[in-house]
Amino acid sequence: MTEAEVFTEVLLSMQAIHGNLAVLTYNRAFAALIVGSILGIVGYSGWSGFLWYFLMQALMGLLIKTKLGSAQPKKYFQSKWAPYTHEVVSSSSMLTFVTAWTLTFSCVHVF
């Protein structure tokens, strides 16, 4: 390795990466809760609700990109795609979305 390559190498703290991923997970789950509740109140049913879920996840990725600004995601995460793809189809955010959606739909439109 040359001296220039040594100075351009980025050292990552696993605790900081874990903290950044935890913040992403929290934000995606909270957004899923909000969107699921809104769709339940409005009365969406069927597969169109999942389209809104994925649109919300895409918007979250865009907001995270805006928050990062000109900084490289590789400085804060293990891969450059982690801010955009982490927890998109995971059980935590998807179940939060479906639970909020069905609960509010049932409370508003069924009972």
Low-confidence stretches: none
- Cα distance spanning the termini: 69 Å
> What average pLDDT do the residues reach?
85
Q: Which strand-content bin applies to the residues?
A: under 5%
What is the radius of gyration?
18 Å
Largest sheet, in brief, is: none
Task: Please characterize this protein's 3D structure.
The protein has 111 residues and is mainly α. It has 5 helices and no strands. The longest helix has 29 residues, at 14-42. The termini are far apart. The relative contact order is 0.19. The model has no long low-confidence stretch (mean pLDDT 85).
Secondary structure topology:
Blueprint: H1 3-8, H2 14-42, H3 48-68, H4 82-85, H5 91-110
Helix pairs in contact: 2-3, 2-5
Structure in a nutshell:
72% of the residues lie in helices and 0% in strands. The chain is mainly alpha-helical and 111 residues long.
Pick out its properties.
mainly alpha, single chain, 111 residues
